[in-house]
Amino acid sequence: MSKINISKILGVTLLAGLLTLCVNAYAQEEAYKEFIFAQGLYEDGKFGLATVQFQKFIENFPENRNCDRAQYLLGACFWNQEKYEEAISAFDRLLQKYPESDWVDDSLYQVGENYYRLRNYAEAIPYYETLIENYPQSNLVAPSLYSLGCAYLEQQEYNSGLRAFKKLRDEFPEFRLERKVKKKTEERVSIKDQIAFVPMKKDQEYFIPADKFKVKFKENGKKTGVVIFEYNRD
Questions:
Q1: Is 178 helix (H, G, I), strand (E, B) or coil?
Q2: Cα–Cα distance between 140 and 153 in angstroms, integer?
Q3: pLDDT value, residue 229
Q4: Are 191 and 177 within 8 A, CB to CB?
Q5: With contact defined as beta carbons under 8 Å apart, do 189 and 146 qualify?
Q6: Are the beta carbons of 31 and 60 closer than 8 angstroms?
Q7: Which pLDDT does position 35 carry in this prediction?
Q8: Which of 1, 10, 198, 218 is most buried, with most CB under 10 Å away?
Q9: 55/164 Cα distance (integer angstroms)
Q10: Distance (Å, whole) CA 73 – CA 21
């Protein structure tokens, strides 16, 4: 083969490579613009429009590095529109398609919360438990324990609920929730205010969350304790 032919081949190869780089760079730029646009709509509270844009982004750029984040924000859009079943599908898709994503623990928590809003406590519980067990360093472990305890109590599984609250109290004594009070102001309350500790038997302590359950305990027909605080979880 002559030197001239080799030069031509090298030139064509180099040109093709440059064209590929240009196309890829353009695609990356377009993907970034679409993602930022969708995210801006979300931050502005335009959740319906943001939903469409995130779906478009994921469809158009399925291999983009921001797809997992877009999938999470898509679920958040549905959550903010109170479309809980759609939110569950979106977060579950992230869990299935992006199992190594940094958003997995967030998605586990959000699926649990959406099922909780639907009062499907049996479905919510495994998601909270998976987060607590598999992501012990997540900042969502404490709120997951709280929601887990509430879900168990909603199902009248008191022992399991109490275990969740004991773990919450022991491991996260500074856990806080924001709540709205009658004056429509917000205050932060400590776990000691959220949990009523009720002595049931000698040398044994039981406690339940005070936000939903004004429960009277009875043993052998006699009342042994009663919750003394109450406010809404949601």
A1: strand
A2: 20
A3: 31
A4: no
A5: no
A6: yes
A7: 93
A8: 198
A9: 37
A10: 30
In single-letter form, the type of residue at position 29 comes to E
Q: Where are the alpha helices (DSSP H) in the chain?
A: 3-43, 47-60, 67-80, 84-97, 104-117, 121-134, 141-154, 158-171, 191-194
DSSP 31-49: HHHHHHHHHHHHHTT-HHH
State how far the Cα of 9 lies from the Cα of 222, in Å rounded to an integer: 94
Specify the pTM. 0.72
**Cβ within 8 Å of residue 78, ≥6 positions away:** 47, 51, 84, 86, 87, 90
| C-alpha distances out from residue 26 to 20, 75, 83, 192, 233, Å | 10, 28, 35, 56, 48
Q: What is the CATH number of domain 34-102?
A: 1.25.40.10
Instruction: Tokens for 216, please give them.
Output: 């009277």
Separation between Cα atoms, residue 194 and residue 144, nearest integer Å: 15
Contact 152, 158 (CB under 8 A): yes
Q: What is the pLDDT of residue 29?
A: 84
Say how far apart CA 111 and CA 106 lie, in whole Å. Answer: 9
Q: How much is the average pLDDT of 179-194?
A: 41
Name the token pair of 218: 């009875």
Both structure tokens of 170: 């022991």
